[in-house]
Write a structure and sequence with these properties.
Blueprint lengths: L5 E4 L5 E2 L4 E6 L8 E4 L9 E8 L6 E4 L5 E2 L2 E2 L5 E3 L5 E8 L3 E8 L4 E8 L18 E8 L3 E2 L4 E2 L24
Parallel strand pairs: 1-3, 2-4, 3-5, 4-6, 7-11
Antiparallel strand pairs: 5-10, 6-9, 7-8, 10-11, 12-13, 14-15
Length: about 180
């Protein structure tokens, strides 16, 4: 198997990557837009390409795609396979069909996590009625925010890349519950 024997500094620009190269990317200085990193169109079986994020970004993402006419994990070139944006994420990709097919050999994406908690009590609403907490004076505080997915200004958790997610909601009333309520 080919080694990642060349190291390149990732840049704040769309990039066509080179075979057998590890891209070390500091996204903390990115200031203008998301950037697309494209796998090389010319590659031999066993060639590898890697990306490691040494510092993530709260506003921008590094999009990964195969070259036009190629695939990455079955996704056609030019179509985003996934995004990186969290510190310490690592992806290693390997060519399995020369000049055509890539697979992810190592997937070290960091799971996004968001947890917000009502930190200021909301005032009482009408009985038997659900009212959004902040509509009644409550305020949210972020308790966990991996991947900068929590926005307490809008009271939302937003996933920044395609994923499977587990979402839980817990609530209780701040009023006395009467019979039949």
């Amino acid at each position: 198997a080919a080694a990642l024997n060349t190291q390149a500094t990732g840049t704040d620009a769309d990039t066509t990557m080179a075979v057998n190269t590890l891209y070390v990317v500091d996204m903390s200085a990115w200031s203008t837009a998301d950037r697309t990193y494209t796998l090389p169109a010319t590659a031999a079986v066993g060639d590898r390409v890697g990306i490691v994020i040494t510092a993530g970004d709260a506003s921008h993402e590094l999009l990964i795609t195969a070259a036009s006419g190629d695939t990455l994990n079955g996704i056609a070139g030019g179509t985003e396979w996934s995004r990186l944006f969290i510190t310490n994420e690592v992806i290693i990709m390997r060519c399995i069909v020369a000049n055509a097919t890539w697979v992810v050999e190592y997937d070290g994406r960091v799971p996004m996590q968001g947890w917000i908690e009502l930190s200021t009590a909301a005032t009482t609403g009408a009985a038997n009625t659900f009212v959004y907490a902040t509509a009644n004076g409550g305020a949210w505080t972020s308790k966990r925010n991996v991947g900068d997915v929590v926005d307490t200004a809008t009271d939302k958790i937003t996933m920044r890349r395609a994923c499977q997610a587990t979402i839980g909601v817990g609530m209780r009333t701040n009023s006395t519950i009467g019979d039949g309520e």
